[in-house]
Amino acid sequence: MPPKKKFTREEIIQAAFEMARENGIDSVVARELGKRLGVSSSPIFTAFKNMEEVQQEVRKIAMKEFESYVSDALNYTPAYKYVGMRMIEFAMQEPKLFQLLYMQEHDESQTFAKLVESLGDTVEVCIEIMQRDYQLNRKDSELLFRQNWLHTFSICALAANKVCHFSIEEISEILSVSFQGTLMLIKSGTFHTIPVNKGNTDESVFPAGL
Question: Regarding the domain with residue range 9-54, which homologous superfamily does it belong to in the CATH classification?
Answer without folding.
Answer: Homeodomain-like (1.10.10.60)
